[in-house]
Task: inverse folding
């Protein structure tokens, strides 16, 4: 019997390895950027076309490679990072497996140019599908340039599995941001289809975060600094009021390497305990430095998950340091340049004491006596025309007060004889009083009902709200119980979908336009959503690189809800915008309905309950919400009778 086990050819093995290393253009961007960082570059340029499907090019000014190294770097398991197995537990670099360049070269057209500083000439190599096409000597600047073209050209099935350009571009942007945030001392620039997206000069952590996230990120950041024997923590967390529903702006860096850790994320959330609303996520940019021998980074193919020696200690230190920073933020004094100076105490009053007012009390005053005493006010000794005090006289039959005297004269006030005399002539039961009244009243005669008795009984039926969540309404066969949030979602969903379909949405103009700030990735999404949002009633006055200006909003949205609607929409479209226009409109309508619908726990008046129930059953499909959940249930009288028959 012949042998059935055989060695795979090199090109097949490389394609299999590429399937593990290169999943999409973003994987190529990550590997090439990390190689440039390991090459000690101080200036790195990323150029992509068609979201990386046509071209991914990384140019750096690093140390470069010799002719031998340039040829050998495309071999599998060729690396300059490790020499023995023990080096795996003390890594200070990014890549180390030696598979990245070999895997990329197996599934793309690749071109490399490299030159060391001391050499006069560099090396230019062209590879197509693991085959060396040419190797030449060329005049080049110091550093290395990798250009990857036509990714997956020899694996059409893998290329067909790539998502739209919008989705792939977001993945590329994520990888670029992670590397750029981890190394603020390096100048990064990013170009997509000929336009510059980022130009980030060398700076500190705060400047790099603000440069990447743009908008008003600087005012959101709270610094975190903690230095212990086992870990050094630096970075920033965002103030609780700027929390978002999405988890996009959450970054952990361990020894300048981006990682994902649900355990450490839980420590951050524990520090925010009691400060965030349900479902909200804080933003954070935390840089952790630990001894390399206390972590294992080789437990995941993408190296985004690592293993710590003492996770419980790291958890406690991280939670405590963030909690301490948030506490400092709440109590630290700040310079308030918008303070109202009129509320300040004048400087020449700062040492003066307040004057104690003098009070004169009439010791002979008795509120229970029948004597009708008259109070007189005389001119005060100060000559101001007023006495230093006043008194109120009252009696069992009435009460009176005297005003202050003028020009030194006193005035006698006669008290009212009886309070009942004030209401003489106002007895409405006296016919003579009504007849003598100068006013005439028009009597309306009550006519018979326009409806029959059944309709009157049905119209008088009311709805009831239970636990601010459900609305109960009686019907002929029993009653229905409506989920107020799902019902309102269905009503709003059909309204938005109709407006977007017929393009006849109404807008309300804002007296003062709204300026909303977003990151570069979010601005790209908003630009693509702009035509669909305009059909719902939004009016965009202007769109900058980091913010939008809205001058009109739909009639059923308040000004304070605009940012909530757009944030929810961006959160729902993290995985990309549907290419089909109907699917895109459907997604937008669902997102807006979810953010604007009345929430569970909201009190509704009787009229609002009626409108909600009537609006639900006026929908085309009132049975389910836009998210395929039932909006109401029916309970028949027979079912209720059975409950009592037990």
Result:
């Amino acid at each position: 019997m012949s042998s059935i086990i055989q060695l795979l050819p090199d090109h097949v093995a490389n394609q299999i390895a590429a399937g593990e290393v290169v999943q999409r253009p973003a994987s190529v961007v990550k590997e090439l950027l990390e190689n440039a960082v390991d090459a000690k570059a101080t200036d790195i340029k990323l150029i992509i076309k068609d979201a990386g499907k046509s071209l991914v090019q990384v140019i750096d000014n690093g140390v470069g490679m010799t002719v031998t190294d340039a040829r050998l770097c495309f071999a599998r398991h060729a690396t300059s990072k490790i020499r023995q197995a023990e080096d795996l537990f003390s890594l200070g670099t990014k890549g180390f497996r030696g598979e990245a360049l070999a895997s990329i070269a197996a599934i793309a057209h690749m071109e490399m140019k490299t030159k060391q500083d001391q050499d006069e000439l560099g090396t230019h190599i062209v590879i197509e599908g693991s085959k060396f096409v040419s190797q030449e000597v060329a005049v080049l600047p110091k550093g290395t340039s990798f250009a990857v073209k036509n990714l997956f050209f020899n694996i059409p099935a893998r290329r067909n599995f790539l998502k739209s350009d919008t989705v792939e571009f977001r993945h590329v942007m994520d990888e670029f941001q992670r590397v750029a945030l981890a190394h603020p001392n390096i100048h990064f620039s990013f170009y997509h289809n000929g336009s510059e997206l980022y130009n980030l000069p060398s700076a500190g952590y705060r400047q790099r975060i603000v440069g990447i996230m743009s908008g008003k990120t600087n005012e959101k950041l709270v610094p975190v600094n903690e230095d212990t024997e086992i870990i050094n923590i630096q970075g920033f967390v965002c103030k609780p009021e700027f929390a978002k529903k999405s988890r996009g702006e959450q970054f952990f860096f361990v020894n300048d390497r981006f990682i994902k850790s649900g355990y450490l994320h839980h420590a951050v959330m524990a520090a925010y305990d009691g400060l965030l609303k349900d479902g909200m996520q804080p933003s954070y940019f935390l840089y952790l430095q630990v001894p390399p021998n206390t972590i294992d980074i080789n437990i995941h193919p993408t190296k985004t998950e690592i293993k710590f020696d003492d996770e419980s200690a790291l958890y406690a230190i991280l939670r405590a340091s963030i909690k301490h920073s948030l506490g400092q933020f709440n109590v630290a004094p700040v310079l308030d340049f918008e303070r109202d100076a009129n509320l300040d105490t004048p400087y020449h009053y700062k040492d003066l004491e307040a004057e104690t007012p003098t009070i004169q009390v009439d010791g002979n005053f008795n509120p229970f006596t029948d004597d009708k005493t008259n109070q007189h006010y005389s001119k005060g000794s100060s000559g101001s025309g007023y006495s230093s005090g006043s008194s109120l006289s009252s009696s069992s039959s009435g009460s009176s007060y005297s005003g202050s005297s003028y020009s030194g004269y006193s005035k006698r006030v006669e008290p009212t004889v009886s309070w009942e005399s004030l209401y003489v002539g106002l007895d409405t039961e006296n016919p003579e009083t009504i007849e003598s009244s100068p006013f005439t009243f028009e009597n309306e005669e009550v006519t018979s009902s326009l409806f029959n008795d059944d309709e009157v009984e049905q119209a008088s039926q009311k709805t009831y709200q239970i636990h601010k969540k459900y609305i109960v309404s009686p019907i002929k066969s029993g009653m229905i119980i409506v989920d107020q949030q799902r019902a309102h979602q269905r009503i709003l969903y059909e309204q938005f979908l109709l407006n977007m379909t017929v393009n006849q949405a109404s807008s309300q103009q804002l007296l003062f336009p709204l300026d909303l700030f977003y990151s570069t990735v979010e601005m790209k999404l908003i630009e693509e959503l702009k035509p669909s949002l305009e059909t719902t009633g939004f009016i965009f006055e202007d769109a900058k690189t980091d913010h939008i200006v809205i001058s009109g909003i739909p009639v059923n949205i308040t000004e304070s809800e605009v940012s909530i609607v757009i944030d929810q929409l961006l959160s729902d479209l993290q995985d990309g915008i549907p290419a089909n226009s109907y699917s895109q409109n459907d997604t937008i309508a669902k997102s807006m309905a979810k953010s604007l619908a009345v929430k569970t726990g909201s009190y509704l008046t009787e009229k609002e309950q009626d409108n909600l129930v009537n609006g639900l059953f006026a929908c085309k499909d009132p049975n389910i919400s836009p998210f395929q959940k039932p909006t109401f249930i029916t309970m028949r009288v027979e079912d209720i009778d059975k409950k009592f028959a037990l």
